[in-house]
Structures are given as structure tokens and as C-alpha cells.
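Question: Send over one sample?
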Amino acid sequence: GLCSDQIGSFMDGLRAGRSLVIEQGHTLILGASDKLLEVVHQISLAKESDGGGVIVVLTELVPKEDLEEQLRAFVKNLPGGLLGTGVVVRTGSPMVPSDLRKVGSRRSKSVIILAEGDPDESDARAMRVVLGLVN
């Protein structure tokens, strides 16, 4: 019935990475380049003394399920894993205000913008993202 359809739709949204992130004080990573896994590892090392932290990744290029699988495979090879740090992946564009709200950009402690694609286009894109973050 109606209730099961709504629950199914909610669960689909969770799997697809469209739900709201409730964390605060997290590290927000916008984009998913070939450097993402190493950046996640370095942040987890830095957060180890605090007992870990939360990293939220917003990407539009890599499907949520694929990125989560890449993270699982990467973490499996790390001694100690991510040392208490959790990673939340969401699908969306860092240039869309509603997507930035979805990942709690205003509640984050820090924001990292990863360059994607052509260097000249990446710089312009990063500037547009920064403008979106401050507005």
C-alpha cells in the first residue's frame, strides 16, 4: 500500500545517497578525484588522536555504491582501517545549493575541494563552488 511505497522510496533515496547528512563538525570533501582515497586516509590519521571523526563526500561523477565499494577495498588494506573515522557518501553537485545543504556544508568544520578533470576548468569550477559555499 501507500505506507510500503513510501518506505521503499525512502530506502531507495538512502541507497542512492540523496538523504540529508545530520553530522556537524565534519570534514566535507567536494568531488571525487584519483586523490580521494589518500585524502580520506590522511584525514583519518589526523583525526586518530580525537578518536576519529566524520568525513562526508559529495560527488556527482562516481555513483555512491561504486565509491563506497572503492572505499571498502582501500580500507581493507590499511592497518587499523580508518582509525575510528567514518565516511558518508552523497550524490550531488557542489554547485547546487540544495546539494550543499544536504551535506551540511554550513555545519562542517572544514571543506576540501578536489580538482576534477582539466586543470583550467577545475580552477574555475573550484571558484564557483567557493562562491556557492559563502552565499
Summary: The longest strand covers residues 54-59. Residues 113 and 126 are 7 Å apart (CA to CA). The chain is about 45% helix and 15% strand. The two ends are 42 Å apart (CA to CA).
